[in-house]
Amino acid sequence: MFEVSLSASYGKRKILDGVQFSLTGGITALLGRNGCGKSTLLNCIAGVLPYTGSVKLNGDVLDGLPARERAKRIGILPQILPSPDLPAEEVVSFGRSPFSTRLSKDEKENVLSVMQKLGIEALRERRVSTLSGGERQKVFFAMLLVQDTPLVLLDEPTTYMDLPFKSVFFDVLKELAGKGKTVILVSHDLSDGMQAADHVLLLEDGGISFAGTRAECLEGEVVERAFGARRYTAEGVVLFR
Amino acid sequence: MTTKKRNFIVFFGAAALLLAAVFFSLRFGSVSLTPDEFWGGMFFKEGYKTYTSIFYSSRLPRTLGAVLAGIAFSQAGTLLQRVTDNPLASPSILGINAGAGFAVLLMLVCFPLAYSLLPLAAFVGALAATFLILGVARSAGMSRVVIVLAGVALSALFQAGISFLSVVDPDALASYVDFSVGGLHGVKTEDLLLPAIIILICLAAAQLLSRRLALFCLGDTLAQSLGVSVKRVRLVSLIAAAASAAAAVSFTGLIGFVGLIVPHCARALVKGNMRLELCLAPMLGASLLLFADLLARTLFAPTEIPVGVFTALLGVPFFLGLVLRRKHHV
Q: Topology of A1-73+149-213 in CATH?
């Protein structure tokens, strides 16, 4: 069980005002208009930004935990990714840094198998600074998988992904949810967000204005109301425009 | 060649270079000694008192001073460039030079004859400037940009103070020039004890932080999400950088450049291994300063050229070579 009750401000401007929700695993799409505070919420949960209130995971209060302990429980793929001048394999292996100072043989094998699973083993020796936006996104997604935390936060993860990789990506997310992990996905692409999600949270005016299953969200036409988007179906896939 | 093998060669190559630099620095100087005079002086051989005096009163303190200052400036630069993610960062962005310079000039204006207190003034001035800058940066959440901007702004303020004092007391300015040019002449072994302790403690602290510092290249968000307490590590690193550079400035004066280029050279040679980078930079920094000081005191002996001239002459071609090679690779 993942429970959140928090507020956050940038200076005097309150961005999140009493955001409350609880999740019991699965994939959750966090939706909201530009600038409503989705990324701020993910960063607060990850402990990157300060907040007031509390974040609990499986009964443990995470507020005030040392960064390393929090990192063992929460992994985040930020919207803006860096371009370190380091080989991709080394960056992926950084995912284990909250757990071990030196990678064990098993951990090294896991790094390689995750890279193979995402189809980026050929990038092992390539410097991340020389990769394309999509390749970088894959490398940092691999790092997140190697971190292997019970709570996974993804901020606009599909921005640079091509179609073939999107399908791999959503399969991996479903696999994570199947293992009992909680995945929260922020996507500006409503179709992407809605396709994969079991649950939907809508962030409006600094708080959660809707929390429910994907079916409830679509039946209640919440998204249409919130975004002014029109829903239509193409070959069983829900799309918005 | 595997990265491990390459790093092994680079590390032992740098260690060999440092040993060679130490030997040359001890062996050669403005007074030329025969091998017999050199070894006799070093081992207190009877009848070699003059050479013993040259060795222990001049060459050994100079060599130790160059090693310590090289370690201090280059490790400070490495830490600063890493935690501010700014390739142009060097001890001067923390106000080390401006703070030390202002304090030394103020001391010369207020107590013109208190030469023995100048190292202390330099150390206190450098640290005070740093803490002022960190105080401003801390109130803005220790952001990298604020650290750099606060450093530039407060350094400008200290520079303005230096300009003002130099107009108020032109006599003090004459003595200040000696400090501002920097160099290792007149360094005494006993003056090095306290700076050595500070520099070596900071060296150990940097090594302990190396694993966490490696993650700073991913930016604050990812570093924090991977378990690094970003603000705390940044603050400790900045204090370690400031303390070691301030300790060095107290006995060398303002020697620039080492803290800027040596970290780049170390980084290019070890390719991302932070722990090794933090070992390599001090070794390269010490070697550079030893060779530069050797040239400064021997090339036009008995006239001594400012050591900064030679750190630039030796360091720049190597530095530019690495930059161009790297660009070619990309």
A: Rossmann fold (3.40.50)
